[in-house]
């Protein structure tokens, strides 16, 4: 009896499967009708020509305002210049240039969005998916679509609107071009030679930054690190920041048995005290993080690491060469002094790609 019931259930299940596979509708399955496209609601600018004209004027005004802010950003770069002797002047320059660029982009974007939202046609469309090809019929249809889009957007027809958009968009990159022009100074045609010469010279004392206090060798203990500048830098009236950017040095003392010095450089250190440029050889960031246990220097910008025990060779990161070493000794009073200037250009490696600095 049980086998008959089981066989009946199997026959019922098979019948249901055949009904589904043959397309029969299961009365227990809920069906849905295609709702179709929603009703199109016309905008005020679609029904009222005067409103459309006023909107066009507003959008055009936004584009002209964008152009005005772009010009303001360029003018601000010259009206509020950066004073090398007063670093706080950067604030005003950055603020007004930034405001000009920001509002130029904001008004340009607002105008473009308003044009699309209120003036371009917004009728709902359904486009069936089909294979695309490069047949003549397809090319013809693409041309028709572009013409239709041009007609619906009013790009050709609304000349004042179009011209103001083009003017604002073309002017937008100009502040960047004006700012980037200062990356090259025509008066310094030989940057490698410029970076090769600093205030360091024979007998120039190493002093603390920023106080200018001379440093005795006995004050530099193992594991300590001093931020150092050349004596006389603080007394400069002009070019102080430029000279400091090239001459800043990090002074450290290591156990003498940890130093692995080359024969021709053993005289550059003094009883384990070594001095290296703080300017990273990657892009010029300050290398100011010293790990006294590993004797590694770390650049915080792009994580380049230098081994102080081996003439600050690069052990990690994108830096292209070791940090330049400043040869040092002591004077008759026990103060640390430089033996000479750096023997190579300081800063990013790309300065050395010019071979005519000698």
From TrEMBL:
Q: Residue ranges under compositional bias (Polar residues)?
A: 12-25
Rieske domain sequence ranges: 246-337
Q: Which PROSITE patterns match?
A: RIESKE
Return the annotated region ranges for Disordered: 1-52
Q: What highest taxon heads this organism's lineage?
A: Bacteria
Q: Which residues cross the membrane?
A: 58-80, 92-115
Subcellular location, record wording = Cell membrane
Q: Which UniProt keywords apply?
A: 2Fe-2S, Cell membrane, Disulfide bond, Electron transport, Iron, Iron-sulfur, Membrane, Metal-binding, Oxidoreductase, Respiratory chain, Transmembrane, Transmembrane helix, Transport
Location, primary (coarse class): membrane
Its family? Belongs to the Rieske iron-sulfur protein family.
Give the function comment from the record.
Answer: Iron-sulfur subunit of the cytochrome bc1 complex, an essential component of the respiratory electron transport chain required for ATP synthesis. The bc1 complex catalyzes the oxidation of menaquinol and the reduction of cytochrome c in the respiratory chain. The bc1 complex operates through a Q-cycle mechanism that couples electron transfer to generation of the proton gradient that drives ATP synthesis.
Protein name, UniProt field: Cytochrome bc1 complex Rieske iron-sulfur subunit
């Amino acid at each position: 009896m049980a086998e008959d019931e089981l066989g009946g259930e199997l026959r019922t299940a098979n019948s249901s499967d055949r009904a589904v596979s043959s397309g029969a509708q299961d009365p227990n399955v809920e069906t849905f009708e295609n709702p179709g496209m929603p009703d199109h609601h016309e905008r005020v600018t679609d029904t009222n020509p005067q409103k459309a004209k006023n909107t066009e004027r507003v959008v055009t005004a936004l584009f002209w305002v964008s152009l005005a802010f772009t010009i303001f950003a360029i003018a601000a770069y010259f009206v509020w210049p950066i004073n090398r002797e007063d670093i706080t002047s950067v604030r005003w320059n950055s603020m007004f240039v930034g405001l000009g660029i920001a509002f130029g982009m904001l008004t340009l974007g607002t105008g473009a969005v308003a044009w699309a939202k209120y003036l371009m046609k917004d009728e709902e469309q359904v486009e069936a998916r089909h294979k695309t090809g490069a047949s003549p019929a397809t090319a013809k249809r693409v041309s028709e679509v572009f013409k239709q889009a041009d007609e619906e957007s009013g790009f050709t027809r609304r000349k004042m609107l179009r011209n103001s958009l083009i003017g604002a968009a073309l002017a937008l990159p100009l502040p960047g071009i004006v700012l980037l022009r200062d990356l090259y100074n025509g008066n310094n045609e030989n940057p490698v030679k410029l970076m090769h010469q600093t205030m360091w010279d024979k007998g120039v004392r190493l002093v603390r930054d920023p106080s200018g206090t001379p440093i005795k060798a006995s004050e530099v203990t193992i594991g300590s690190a001093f931020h150092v500048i050349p004596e006389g830098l603080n007394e400069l009236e002009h070019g102080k920041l430029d000279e400091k950017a090239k001459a800043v040095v990090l002074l450290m003392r290591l156990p003498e048995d940890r130093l692995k010095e080359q024969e021709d450089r053993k005289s550059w250190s003094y009883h384990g005290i070594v001095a290296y440029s703080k300017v990273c050889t990657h892009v010029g960031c300050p290398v100011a993080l010293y790990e006294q246990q590993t004797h590694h220097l770390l650049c915080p910008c792009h994580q380049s690491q230098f081994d102080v025990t081996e003439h600050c060779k690069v052990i990690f990161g994108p830096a292209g060469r070791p940090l330049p070493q400043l040869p040092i000794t002591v004077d008759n009073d026990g103060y640390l002094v430089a033996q000479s200037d750096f023997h190579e250009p300081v800063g990013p490696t790309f300065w050395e790609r010019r071979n005519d600095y000698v």
